[in-house]
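Before a colleague's protein record goes any further, I have to sign it off. I want your independent view on whether this chain really folds as the tokens say. The record follows directly below this note.
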Amino acid sequence: MPSDPTSDQELFRALQRGEDVALNGLIQRWEQPLFAFAWRYMQNTADARDLVAETFVRLYHQRDRLRPDTRLSAWLFTTLTNLCHNQHRWRRRHPAVSFNSADDDGASMEETLPSDAPRPSANVERDEALDQLTRAVDRLPHDLKTTVLLHHFEGLSYREIGDITGCSARGVETRLYRAKQKLKDELSGFLHEASQA
């Protein structure tokens, strides 16, 4: 993750002065970490790219309303987090047909397409465990999910996460604890089955 707030502030002030090319510098610095977060939240590349693009569009449109000393990293992640949350809720209310969903014969679309790649059975258990964990994280409430993703995948400190989520460092610690407990409870059945096998 970019770690030079001075450069961010210089680029942001240039953007506020009307130097639109400064936005390119901010995009170059922040696009990758924002995309990584959005992809982990949405589990969809197209949605992640769209939401990151929308974040930068909002930054551009709101550049004159923001204070010059705005902590850009917190503003970008807060905006993206809210966009992800809204999109995720919309997707739950308007589900789409998955590429992996089964047809009338019970075969998934993916299975009906020709493929030269062998399916390694050695990785099936690991893939299933990762899939279970991904699903469990996806089902966490928004505040817990955001905190887990920012801490474990983006490597942000409790203070930085607090700036983004609007709670204290102690509140972040509590959210992480609650998220771990929920994940442990939700995955206990799967882990028990895996240990029996």
The radius of gyration is 20 Å. The CA atoms of residues 38 and 48 lie 5 Å apart. Residues 169-196 form the longest helix (28 residues).
